[in-house]
Queue: 4 jobs
Job 1
Amino acid sequence: MSEDFNMSMRKFLKQVGVTSQQAIEEAMRNAGDTAGRSFEAKVVLTIDGLDLAHVVTGKIEGQS
């Protein structure tokens, strides 16, 4: 793969990671005390023009 492709992909993935973390942290703060709870999380990545539907699932543990 070309260097331009790698850089654009890394930039996109960094943006996804940073903005997703910020959104999760804000939602957890707004939820109040979530200690002892876990939350199912799912991210769906699609790219227009490509036959791509990538799903990542996991759990996020609550906090007090």
Job 2
Amino acid sequence: MLTIKLNQMQFHSHIGFYKEERVIGQDIVINITLNLKDVSLDTLAKDDLNNTINYGQVYQIASEVVAKKDTKLVETVASLICKHVWDQFEDKLEHVTVAIQKKGLPIDGVLDNAEVEVSI
């Protein structure tokens, strides 16, 4: 099995339930794990991008979803990224997992981040 991970992608977003979060924004960190359908070592040794997934395109999908200003929940953002990645690469994928950490939470307490994870 081939697993591709895009780790610690950092974005400034305007995602939030509260108006202040959408105005000021906050930093989020996104991790995406792609589990590809069986790909043989011989196929991978051919050194052909068509035999894998271009993770630059996956990054672009995440970036475009985060840039939308009308989303309130990180759960929604994670599910949209997951769905768009799946839709674009379904023929090559076994599973997709998107995890988003939201920092700077409007919570009265000590907390580094909140994280949601969505998988297909």
Job 3
Amino acid sequence: MLMRLSHDLGLYFYDVLVARFDVWAAFGVLAQLVFGARFIVQWIASEKAEKSVIPMGFWFLSIAGGLMTMVYGFARRDIVIILPQALSIFIYIRNLMLIAKDKRRKAEAEMPT
């Protein structure tokens, strides 16, 4: 039984990593790496600040990785990837809009009247 399982797992991973690996799969892996890099950026910024922070780079990597993953979903014709990425990208952009609005409000409050 273990020999059969080992053989089947080997065939599965060969199929996923070799037989079906194409340019779009490589693009999808790259998209996930870009998307995942946002957590490294957030972690480094938090360590420097010695508190939990979300830097602007986090949002830009979120948008870039989300767009790339959505393109991958369109290429693969996979609605399970397309729909959540479209919603997420909207949320990331909205967060940037709220950050910009807050910065404008603070700048206006600091202006002498």
Job 4
Amino acid sequence: MFTVALVLLIVADAYFVLTTLVDLFPFNNVREAKRSEQITEVSVNGPVMLVPAVLLGVAGLTGLPVLAYAGGGLELLVVLGGLALWWLPYLVGVTVPWATAGTGESWAGLHARTYAKTIIVLPARKDRPRPNLEHMILHILILAAAICTFAAAGAV
């Protein structure tokens, strides 16, 4: 389970960086995001998403499961943040205050500019922004990584 968790943590972070910086239209719509937005997103979230892998790795080397549990907890916070950002607006029409920090745009405006033209498999709910396939996959990867990290922590 340790190896599975570590691979999932690294794959989730790599997937995030790839889909934030590389234009894979219509899967993502990097071409519509400002380069400064991309750089900020990767420089803030990329390292945060890498810390659980580091904690799990150190836990494996030192035999300290508390580090693996801390990594799992951080990964759980990452997935909860992603779910709040994407699913609250879609399901209940509530946008988290940090959704567009520093962009000067509303979440609906940012979504319309950068995500609305991507692959979206969910049905429309009024005029609410919908999670796109790219982010649905990311959320699944991060959630699976968090679950596996907790399972691995129990075995350290």
